[in-house]
């Protein structure tokens, strides 16, 4: 069908050159993690250009072309089963912003795909090309006839579902026209793309943005407000799909950038790709999954994703684990990624050199995940096999929910892995049962946590109160004060009639303005007045859903359970501080993501008035610049006075909205509350209390950044008045230091570092003097040598000298006692309650058979210590300085008897 093999790199280059020659600016690929609240990953070439298409920004060019990295997670199940879906792929695109339109797009596309290979084209046979158009798009149909000379029968009309493009939200929309290559009758029936999408392979989609949509309900259900003032072109050509055709392959897993991984996998597993037989076909799918997932993982890690349990991290984890598991299914049990990932790197590194320069980091992330997964697998697979065996033996075909749950709970088996393994074993899983157990466990865990917190022994009591009275009317979002009736009064878990002054108990009201601890925000503080007395609110919890319980202490008076009316009042300053801290937490989170990138995801948080901390997934320590930048972005957000708002929506609406669902939050079953600050800048699922405008947070002062466990960092900050006080204290310190050092604050650092330098210098000089002084005593010591048994012996105690000094002096004295007469120098220093002993012998003494080590050993017992060394020099130390004289005598005795 084509005249010659073109490599992926060649196709990419030809595409870019083709459009560059036609006045397009070449734009490099954006990161897969480009920040777009609606997308987990960039999934099309147009994504980086969205602001231009939406009219939010003016494009710096009217024509552009790119080869964009894309990941489509929805295609994960298709991989290896169809011929044309990769989880990672590259989209070649050309874009026109109010410049050329349908005719231009058709002409440029046609020239490239049918152009002679010798002159830079792709060389597809025009007779094999089919296109689809929207039935009502006569303009596109005409263009294909006139410019390309395509006959009517190869221009297939296709409806809105296939051939209309929109973003799923109000904004630009328009018809598409897709280009297909007929692979030949051996691949399927006649009848064009409408009949068979495997034989007729879609390679390129041209989108003609021409309408403004006012509402979008579905792909084929929307309202057109009118024509777009400026019409745009957005096209996407799948690089891997074109490569598979031009390389004469059967699918996109066999092309130059993917197949080498399959080849390596064949060597490792000893199995053959493409072998005959139906078992082999199953293996072939595994080979393709391995090759695809290894490449996608490589690209994701390359762009900064790390494996995790939600969002992007979870997609990566799934890809890596599926790759590893499929290798095992192919019969290869050893670590696979160290063998496969480098192969993929070598193929992709040509177009993405950062994969090579960043290799160490990428490898570390991937290999660690495989290690972790291998441990999980080892434990879980046996349990799974056992369970599967039991099910089969009993003649059933469903793995019970509790087994799946145990695998998850005890062995960390994700449910989709259990599902996959079950389906491989020809079994199904009671998913509903599994989910039910998961929900129960979550509830239990929450109740446990709450019970521990409020020392609630038994939730049964609360459940009873709830059943009798219904849920507490909870007014924390609306007001700080309520008139309330008491519904229950408890002490140590049991109902009481009265709570006396000083006693601590629990009070349930029909309505309350108090915020109960949740979502990282601590409970409100405040008071509850009753006739004749006051209660201090110590804690507020929700031990069972719907019921708010106040832990209170009677400040004065005596609270009867029958009190008629109480006045509950949240401390307004406390609440202001709490709102500041909670909004501050969201702002720091958003700032973090802005500075570090969207992979920095919160894993936990805590905030109380004036203080917040946030834990987030991140591998390395932040450098001071990053911390400053985060603080800067956060405070800019305060200055911008962003509006803070919240609304209820379903979880899926929230997800579509890009809201971040975070760890440990409790949500209502139906609707979740989404808090947003500055529109899409910060959207989080959250039940907390917040300021109305970001400026009300006052200030955010980052006070610390530290590690909390592997792959997790913690950032701490002060908000509002606390932030100001912290800065004021620092200013006081600075001003005191300035006064003390008689300098201006700006010169303080220079002044202190001068001082430190001078101090060091002085210490050095003093050390020199001390040494000189010490050594000056050497001559006197040498002169005082006594002769014992024909040996000159210096055995002396040195008060105030420690190890190094003793040694220096001992060798100095020995030097002075050189000559043919044997000489032994033994000095014992005593400093800070510790003894240091050094023995130094001249050559003649050694010739006499004396050994320095022996002498030290003779003295050591008196010093409660030990030591040793060579014949010429030995040293030791001990913890007892009271018997140094005996130690020295022992040395002399040893010399005398030698
Ligand atoms: P299909 O219907 O075949 O799944 P699509 O209609 O979803 O494709 P588009 O959204 O029109 O694809 O994307 C434009 C081009 O990107 C396609 O023509 C195709 O060449 C390529 N493409 C899309 N999805 C994939 C994928 N998963 N793997 C490889 N290439 C892809
Ligand atoms: Mg398409």
Uncertain residue ranges: 451-457, 662-669
In DSSP terms (H or I, runs of 4 or more residues), the helix count works out at 26
Alpha-beta classification: alpha+beta
Q: Which molecules are bound besides the chains?
A: adenosine-5'-triphosphate, magnesium ion
Strand percentage:
25-35%
Give the overall shape, derived from the CA principal axes: extended
User: How many angstroms separate the termini?
Assistant: 102 Å
Return Rg in Å: 39 Å
Largest sheet: 9 strands, mixed
What does the average pLDDT come to?
Answer: 90
Strands, total number: 36
Could you estimate the helical fraction of the residues in percent? 40-55%
Secondary-structure topology with pairs:
Blueprint: H1 8-21, E1 25-27, H2 50-53, E2 63-71, E3 88-97, H3 102-114, E4 129-133, H4 138-146, E5 155-157, H5 160-163, E6 164-166, E7 171-182, H6 192-195, E8 200-218, E9 221-238, H7 239-246, H8 259-269, H9 278-302, H10 311-329, H11 337-348, H12 354-357, H13 359-393, E10 398-399, H14 401-411, H15 415-424, E11 428-429, H16 431-454, H17 459-469, E12 473-474, E13 481-484, E14 486-491, E15 494-495, E16 498-499, E17 504-509, E18 511-512, E19 526-530, E20 533-544, E21 547-556, E22 559-560, E23 566-570, H18 572-596, E24 602-608, E25 611-617, H19 624-639, E26 644-650, H20 651-656, E27 671-677, E28 682-685, E29 700-707, E30 712-719, H21 720-741, H22 748-783, E31 786-788, E32 791-799, H23 803-816, E33 823-831, E34 834-841, H24 843-847, H25 852-859, E35 865-869, E36 873-878, H26 884-896
Parallel strand pairs: 1-2, 4-5, 10-11, 12-18, 32-33
Antiparallel strand pairs: 2-3, 3-9, 4-7, 6-7, 7-8, 8-9, 13-23, 14-15, 14-17, 16-22, 17-21, 19-20, 19-23, 20-21, 24-25, 25-30, 26-27, 27-28, 29-30, 31-32, 33-34, 34-36, 35-36
Helix pairs in contact: 3-4, 8-9, 8-11, 9-10, 9-11, 9-13, 10-13, 11-13, 13-14, 14-16, 18-19, 22-23, 25-26
Bound molecules: adenosine-5'-triphosphate and magnesium ion (MG).
């Amino acid at each position: 069908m084509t005249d010659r093999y073109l490599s992926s790199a060649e196709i990419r280059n030809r595409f870019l050159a083709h459009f560059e020659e036609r006045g397009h600016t070449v734009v490099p690929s954006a990161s897969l993690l480009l920040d777009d609240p609606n997308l987990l990953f960039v999934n099309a070439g147009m994504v980086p250009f969205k602001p231009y298409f939406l009219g939010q920004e003016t494009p710096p060019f009217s024509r552009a072309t790119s080869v964009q990295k894309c990941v489509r997670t929805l295609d994960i199940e298709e991989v290896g089963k169809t011929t044309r879906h990769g989880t990672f792929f590259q989209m070649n695109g050309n874009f026109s912003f109010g410049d050329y339109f349908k005719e231009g797009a058709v002409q440029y596309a046609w020239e490239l795909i049918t152009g002679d290979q010798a002159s830079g084209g792709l060389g597809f046979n025009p007779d094999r090309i089919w296109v689809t158009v929207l039935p009502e798009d006569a303009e596109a149909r005409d263009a294909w006839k006139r410019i390309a000379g395509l006959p009517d029968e190869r221009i297939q009309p296709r409806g809105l579902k296939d051939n209309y493009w929109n973003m799923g939200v109000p904004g630009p929309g328009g018809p598409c026209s897709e280009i297909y290559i007929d692979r030949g009758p051996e691949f399927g029936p006649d009848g064009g793309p409408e009949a068979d999408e495997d034989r007729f392979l879609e390679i390129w989609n041209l989108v003609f943005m021409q309408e403004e949509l006012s509402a979008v309900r579905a792909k084929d259900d929307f309202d057109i407000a009118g024509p777009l003032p400026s019409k745009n072109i957005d096209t996407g050509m799948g690089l891997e799909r074109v490569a598979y055709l031009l390389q004469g392959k059967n699918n996109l897993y066999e092309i130059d950038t993917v197949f080498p991984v399959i080849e390596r996998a064949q060597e490792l597993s000893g199995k053959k790709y493409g072998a005959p037989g139906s078992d082999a076909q199953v293996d072939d799918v595994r080979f393709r999954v391995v090759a695809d997932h290894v490449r996608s993982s490589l690209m994701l890690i390359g762009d900064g994703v790390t494996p995790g349990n939600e969002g992007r991290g979870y997609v990566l984890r799934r890809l890596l684990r599926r790759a590893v598991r499929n290798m095992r299914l192919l019969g290869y049990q050893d670590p696979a990624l160290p063998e496969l990932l480098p192969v993929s790197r070598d193929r992709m590194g040509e177009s993405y050199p950062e994969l090579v320069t960043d290799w160490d980091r990428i490898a570390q992330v991937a290999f660690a995940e495989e290690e972790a997964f291998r441990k999980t697998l080892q434990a879980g697979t046996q349990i799974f096999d056992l369970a599967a065996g039991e099910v089969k033996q009993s003649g059933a075909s469903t793995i019970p929910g509790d087994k799946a749950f145990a695998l998850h709970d005890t062995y960390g088996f994700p449910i989709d892995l259990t599902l996959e393994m079950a389906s491989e074993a020809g079994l199904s899983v009671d998913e509903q049962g599994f989910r039910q157990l998961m929900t129960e466990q979550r509830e239990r865990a929450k109740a446990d946590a709450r019970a521990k917190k409020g020392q609630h022994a038994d939730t049964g009591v609360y459940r009873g109160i709830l059943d009798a009275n219904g849920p507490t009317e909870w007014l924390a979002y609306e007001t700080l004060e309520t008139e309330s009736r008491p519904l229950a009064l408890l002490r140590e878990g049991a109902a009481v009639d009265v709570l006396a002054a000083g006693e601590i108990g629990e009070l349930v009201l029909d309505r309350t303005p108090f915020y109960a601890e949740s979502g990282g925000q601590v409970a409100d503080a405040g008071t509850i007045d009753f006739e004749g007395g006051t209660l201090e609110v110590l804690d507020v919890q929700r031990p069972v859903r719907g019921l708010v319980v106040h832990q209170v202490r009677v400040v004065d008076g005596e609270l009867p359970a029958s009190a008629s009316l109480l006045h509950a009042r949240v401390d307004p300053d406390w609440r202001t501080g709490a709102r500041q801290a909670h909004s501050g937490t969201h702002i720091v989170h958003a700032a973090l993501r802005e500075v570090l990138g969207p992979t920095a995801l919160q894993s936990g948080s805590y905030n109380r008035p004036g203080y917040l901390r946030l834990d987030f997934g991140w591998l390395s320590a932040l450098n001071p610049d990053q911390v400053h930048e985060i603080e800067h972005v956060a405070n800019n957000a305060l200055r911008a006075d962003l509006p803070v708002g919240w609304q209820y929506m379903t979880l899926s609406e929230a997800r579509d909205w890009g809201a971040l669902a975070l760890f440990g939050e409790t949500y209502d079953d139906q609707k979740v509350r989404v808090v947003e600050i500055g529109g899409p800048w910060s959207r989080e699922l959250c039940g907390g209390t917040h300021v109305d405008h970001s400026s009300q947070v006052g200030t955010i002062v980052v006070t610390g950044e530290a590690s909390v466990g592997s792959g997790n960092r913690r950032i701490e900050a002060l908000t509002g008045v606390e932030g100001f006080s912290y800065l004021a204290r620092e200013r006081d310190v600075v001003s005191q230091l300035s006064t003390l050092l008689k300098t201006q604050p700006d010169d303080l650092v220079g002044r202190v570092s001068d001082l430190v330098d001078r101090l060091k210098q002085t210490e050095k000089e003093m050390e020199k003097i001390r040494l000189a002084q010490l050594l000056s005593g050497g001559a006197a010591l040498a002169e005082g040598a006594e002769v014992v048994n024909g040996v000159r012996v210096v055995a002396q105690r040195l008060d105030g000298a420690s190890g190094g000094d003793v040694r220096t002096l001992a060798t100095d004295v020995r030097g002075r006692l050189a000559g043919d007469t044997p000489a032994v120098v033994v000095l014992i220093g005593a400093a800070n309650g510790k003894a240091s002993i050094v023995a130094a012998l001249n050559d003649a003494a050694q010739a006499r058979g004396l050994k320095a080590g022996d002498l030290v050993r003779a003295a050591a017992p008196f010093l409660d210590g030990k030591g040793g060394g060579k014949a010429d020099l030995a040293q030791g130390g001990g913890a007892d300085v009271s018997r140094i004289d005996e130690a020295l005598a022992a040395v002399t005795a040893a010399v005398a008897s030698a």
